[in-house]
Design a protein that fits this description.
With 394 residues, the protein is of the alpha/beta class. It has a domain at 6-46 and 57-65 and 103-175 and 269-351 and 372-381: FAD/NAD(P)-binding domain. Helix content is 36%, strand content 29%. It has helices spanning 14-25, 50-59, 62-66, 104-116, 165-168, 228-234, 236-246, 251-254, 286-289, 298-315, 319-348, 353-362, 370-381; strands at 6-10, 29-33, 45-48, 70-79, 84-89, 99-103, 121-123, 128-133, 139-143, 148-152, 154-157, 173-188, 194-201, 205-213, 216-224, 264-273, 281-283. The strands form 3 sheets. Strands 3, 4, 5, 6, 12, 13, 14, 15 and 16 form a 9-stranded mixed beta sheet that branches. β1 (6-10), α1 and β2 form a beta-alpha-beta unit. α1 (14-25) runs parallel beside α10 and α2 crosses α10 (298-315). It is globular, with a radius of gyration of 21 Å. 45% of the residues are buried. Flavin-adenine dinucleotide (FAD) binds at residues 10-16, 33-36, 44, 46-47, 127-128, 158-160, 164-165, 182, 184, 266, 285-287, 293, 296-300, 302.
Length: 394
């Protein structure tokens, strides 16, 4: 009979919500602590990869989410001049295989609904700022108002890419803040049905169009973070003209872009935590392995983390034993996606123009090598288990 633990989960994002639901369903006593006073279905469009779909299937949520998602059969990157850089068709990996574009809010609402079916003690408007360890080895969390939460047998931190708790709890992390990020907006429109279209010029300009379902489309415009004010000063019309010259497919969604304030700026980070747990506390999701969105894996990695952690807790006698098993199960998989994303990102967004030449020369050739093509396709599905591994089971 699996042991039941008292669990504190910090952060009501995708990682925290999935974890809280799964652990409560398994009979653990779960307290979910979130600093925002209200949790809202906000966010950009995300790519729900095959890995994320498998976890949602296990949660019984897949059909519900897919009703409000747009099928993505192909990732198509091309130059502003029209020449194709790379086309990855999911169906070439396996018949029926595809990703889905979905608004993060749709996914989050579905997960929140599942949390509400369980007796999870949700505490909103509480920012965790420190912890104490009791003489018995339990963890007590303290929030910024001085309120104590716990004691807990284990704590799962899903407090996002900009986690303060990593440092507060003594976990060493290397954080790479990219100079480049994106302006994005979600507006009515169809985009290019069935396709995530990315248009590039060199490594400094990148445009993306992701259909989402519900008649929405996410529009991305990559840029240097320190140019956002200058772009704003030039005005919305100038930006729209620039985007249209770059990608005529943007015409329909841009009709719904009327104010600069509709555009949100997001800067990317790459986070690597050397040790994800100390036997009592574990970091999952973006707090453990945030990465740029170029491979579109973040949401999916967060859900796989939650799924595997719950499985390890079912099989272990102690939190420390479960954490060790979890780390062993996730290491090769997370390392692979983190390394590939870290390696590829500057080829798509950076100040190193020379990388664009290499990319334009090599990337179109890679799919002509069958074994490479297969690995590329497996990678984008989110199911590659590691550098020397094939398709993983979730
Ligand atoms: C522009 C952009 C596009 C993206 N596109 C994709 C994509 O196509 N596919 C994909 O899979 N991923 C994508 N991602 C990444 C994806 O959004 C993240 O990987 C995912 O949201 C991580 O979830 P999380 O639960 O780990 O963290 P978050 O969603 O950041 O949640 C963290 C939560 O913790 C709370 N919190 C933080 N600190 C505390 C504290 N001290 N106390 C209490 N609560 C706290 C926060 O308020 C928040 O609610 C994209 C990201 C960006 C920026």
């Amino acid at each position: 009979m699996p042991r039941r633990f008292r669990v504190g989960v910090v952060g009501f994002g995708v990682a925290g919500a999935t974890t809280a639901y799964l652990l409560a369903r398994d009979g653990h006593t779960v307290t979910l602590i979130e600093r925002a006073p209200v949790v809202e279905p906000i966010g950009a469009g995300v790519l729900l990869q095959c890995s994320g779909q498998e976890v949602l299937g296990h949660l019984g949520l897949l059909d519900h989410v897919l009703k409000r998602a747009a099928p993505i059969d192909e990732l198509h990157a091309r130059h502003a001049g029209g020449r194709t850089l790379v086309r990855n068709r999911y169906g070439d990996y396996a018949p029926g295989c595809r990703a889905y574009g979905v608004h993060r809010g749709v996914l989050f609402n579905a997960l929140r609904g599942q949390v509400e079916t369980q007796s999870v003690d949700v505490r909103l408007g509480r920012e965790v700022v420190s912890r104490e360890i009791t003489p018995g080895g339990e963890v007590v969390l303290l929030d910024s108002a001085g309120t104590r939460h716990g004691p807990f047998d284990l704590v799962v931190c899903g407090d996002g890419a900009r986690s303060h708790l990593r440092a507060v709890f003594g976990f060493k992390a290397s954080v790479l803040k990219y100079d480049h990020g994106t302006l994005w907006v979600t507006v009515p429109g169809a985009g290019v049905p069935g396709k995530l279209l990315q248009v590039v010029r060199g490594t400094r300009q990148l445009f993306g169009l992701l259909p989402l379902g519900d008649g929405l489309v996410s529009v991305y415009w990559g840029l240097r973070n320190d140019t956002v004010d200058a772009v704003k000063a030039r005005g919305l019309d100038a930006l729209k003209q620039e985007i249209l010259a770059f990608s005529p497919e943007a015409a329909e969604p841009l009709e719904h872009l009327c104010h600069f304030d509709q555009l949100l700026h997001t800067a990317y980070q790459h986070v690597h935590v050397r040790r994800r747990h100390d036997g009592r506390v574990i970091f999952i999701g973006d707090s453990a392995h945030a990465m740029s969105p170029h491979l579109g894996q973040g949401i999916n990695l967060a859900m796989v983390d939650a799924w595997r952690l719950a499985a390890c807790l079912r099989a272990a006698d102690t939190p420390a034993g479960a954490f060790r098993a979890f780390e062993a199960a996730q290491r090769a998989y997370v390392r692979y996606y983190a390394s590939v994303t870290w390696f590829l990102s500057p080829f798509f967004q950076s100040d190193w123009r020379i990388l664009a030449w290499g990319r334009d020369l090599v990337l179109p050739l890679l799919p002509h090598v069958p074994v490479v093509r297969r690995q590329m396709l497996l990678t984008v599905t989110g199911l590659k288990g590691g550098f020397l591994k094939g398709r993983m089971a979730i």
